[in-house]
Automatic annotation (TrEMBL):
InterPro entries: EmrB-like, MFS, MFS_dom, MFS_trans_sf. GO terms for biological process: response to antibiotic. It comes from the Bacteria. This is MFS transporter. It is a multi-pass membrane protein. It holds the Pfam family MFS_1. It comes from Streptomyces yokosukanensis. Signal peptide: none annotated.
Amino acid sequence: MRLVMTEPVEKMERPYARRWWALLVLCLSLLIIVMANTALTVAAPDMTRDLGLSSADLQWVIDGYTVPYAALMLLLGAIGDKYSRRGALVLGLVVFGGGAVFGYLADSAATVIAARAVMGVGAALIMPATLSLLAATFPRAERAKAITLWTATAGLAIAAGPVVAGALLRNHGWSSTFLINVPVAVVAIVAALVLIPPSKAGHHDRIDYVGGLLSVVWTGALIYMIIEGPHFGWGVKAVTAAVIAGVGLVAFVLWELRHPRPILDVRRFTGRRFAGSNLAVALFFLAVFGAFYYLTQHLQFVLGYDALETGVRMLPLAGAVFVGSAVTGFLTPRVGMKWTVTAGMVGGTTALALLTQVDAGSTYSDFLAPLIILGLAIGLALSPCTDAIMGTFPESELGVGGAVNDTSLELGGSLGIAILGSLLATSYGNHLSDATAGSKLPASALDTAQDSVGAGYAVAQGIGDKAHALAAQAAKATDPQQAAQLKQQAAELAAGARQMTHAVGSSFSDAVAHTSLVGAVILGIGTILVAVLLPRREATTPDVKTEERELANSSAG
């Protein structure tokens, strides 16, 4: 028995020499797939004007990426485990880069949405592969540190996307935000083949394709329902998607419980550490994506920053994520993940609570503290959760483990944008209706202004342009009576434009405060649930499966 163990133990003492360079490639791959969403938030106005997108078109340009991304991760993660995790990463980068080229060449709403969907398929290959390769390449003693850097990269991407897109949009069109992904993907492909060691599961059992397809059906239908219902009404499409999601989920659970080698052993969710970690990831990204959605709008529309200026002002969040990640890397081994995760979620709740103080007079300085606290909270909470989720899976299922973590993240983010975004729109419309009650502005203009904050400012701008045109006519008029009438009309329209501008800004600020309150309540309740679920202290003695996984992981190096 000692002779059998000698070689693996020696290998454990010599982990893969270029593992930190490999991590750099994995983080670079993660960076572009997260930035693909956050960069679009600042490119959307230019795209809308150029392509004449409706609000429904724009919503699906954003979410056409999310549906295949979330739906396919579990199945593609399992396929990567069986055949090649590095192969899945490289193929994903090829597909993602191809979708980016397609997006650059797109000239209609349909082609942009299709390009985003192709990029979503690529992301579904890349995302679980990054985590599974990380776990397979690093020994257990270093894995938490590596995951901390992986998580910090995700936080950096959230803020870096608007900065990069904003810089490009100053001199180039919206399509450049697609093309920038291509050279990065090419570099990542070459670096992956050179620096990342091959890795796949040790066993060769058949993949549970039925379970995988059921996961695609119920996850895809759920994401579609989350997008369709709040934004476009609970009509036939949304209700049908809800039914398919419910039936698909039940069928998936029943199938997985009976299958001898399920694609995902759903019994794992009975473990408090696993369930609590997944819930924390989902709730955190519900809050982060929801808050990011309306904070970028407030900075651009209400405070008047351009795309680059908006991105730069989100950078304190990214810096705080790195600080929080460093702190959790020090604290979690000493006090346990229950305390760092709970502290992070309390911090996130506090950040949203501070945003309830936003009003028409708020400046960027009022957003700085919430951004920093939110970044610290992300860094504190997410690395321990991801490490706990990945640590639950044996070496043969690391791709599935990464997919579970990333699906929780994506479901939470989609829910955040859908729930908080829908609430924001409703609150803004109600506040604007109250603010303009009794005004002499045309009813059609008021209806248009209630659609979104961007539409509201566009209406105000249009009224102001009409006022300037009438004032110019008055200056040229030779009839004094006509000139006086034109001046009076111009003055009334100018006053209406000022009233509309103020009403739009104050209404959106009030909507941000109201939405933040709801988000704080949701995350606060979730914090209590996660604190109850997570065990006080995880076991420090590894079980037999963990030891076996360590031997297999180190052998891969």
